Amino acid sequence: MKAAIITIGDELLIGQTVDTNSAWMGAEMSKAGFDVYRMTSIHDRREDIIYALHEAAGKTDVVLITGGLGPTSDDITKQTLCEFFNTRLVTDDEVLRMIESMMSRRNFPMNENNRRQAEVPESCKVLQNATGTAPGMWFEKDGTIFISMPGVPYEMKHIMTEHVLPELNKLFTSQIIIHRNIMTYGTFEAKLAEMLTGFEAGLPENIKLAYLPASGVIKLRLTGTGTEHEPLSNLINDQVNNLYKLIPDFIYGENEESLEMIIGKLLKEKNITVSTAESCTGGEIAHMLTSVPGSSAYYKGTVVAYANSVKTQLLGVQKDIIEKNGAVSEKVVQEMANGARNLFKTEFAVATSGIAGPDGGTEAKPVGTVWIAVASEKGIVTEKRVFGNDRITNIKRFSLAALNLLRKQIINS
Fold it and tell me: Selecting from 3.30.70.2860, 3.40.980.10, 3.40.47.10, 3.40.50.300, what CATH number does the domain 176-254 have?
């Protein structure tokens, strides 16, 4: 079963809007057993829309289309769909009633633009939109199903969830696709691939492995295809178990779990707390930890000790230690971690000090250098890492390295 996705909008092509619709639809269609073989973003131009529709007709089972269904003059998708499907626009009374009711609830006056949104191609099956004024539309031509939906993400998701996916599940049941994501950290992609050479070679024909790296985290995605869910699921589970045996030191979680989510689970399980002292990461670690719902149960606070004076005054780092070793040093992060742990009265504290760049590096301490310390009742564990030259990327990588060191120490506590 093949599917294609077409997103319409000049704003997508000039970078004003990030196309999150394609990613979400692709994930949902993959779960439903479809092979999404193409994603295309195109201009709000009649000829571009017609070309994209002709390219898909008869070559794929389902085409999902978003965008261009608004009430303004630049929204031309409906008129172009009429041309492609050789039909005309007619007013759908039920859609009109829904629009009138929605406008009334919001205390907005109806105008001609709103009424025009109740016009739909006569040959389509209307998919009601309870979250907005533009309905979805279902067409069939040359053995291909075309589904047009609004570009507003929450409206598209509503129509997909309530109408499109249930109907597609009824029509297409021959293939099952299962994805399983194994989250890893602590090595680089080429090295990980080297370690898994034999594993890849031994995979069954219907299971594929993909490497998806991002800022140091590498997601290993196992994708299996089959006709029966339980046997396929068992086969995937066997391969996941093999991965745990092969690279146990690098696996920290599964699916879309982040390091901060895993740390939160560990801290909750052990009923213990953590604090942070950040220099080069500027509060990024605190932000990551507090982005997890329920983090107030285990996260107490941070000191963003960017200036040396803050390190000495709030965290108790001795001035002579900074002068002797430099702010980016093992001794300083040890003192910072101890200071945060004492200040916030937590079982664990993690500290960072480094050179994010692009300036400030030396031969001894190049840009990308970071020292990390984790303090606990067992003592202090430190780690030095050297990354690249990009400031924003370094801040993210410094933070991930600090979280991973913290995770290891919590496990061993």
Answer: 3.30.70.2860
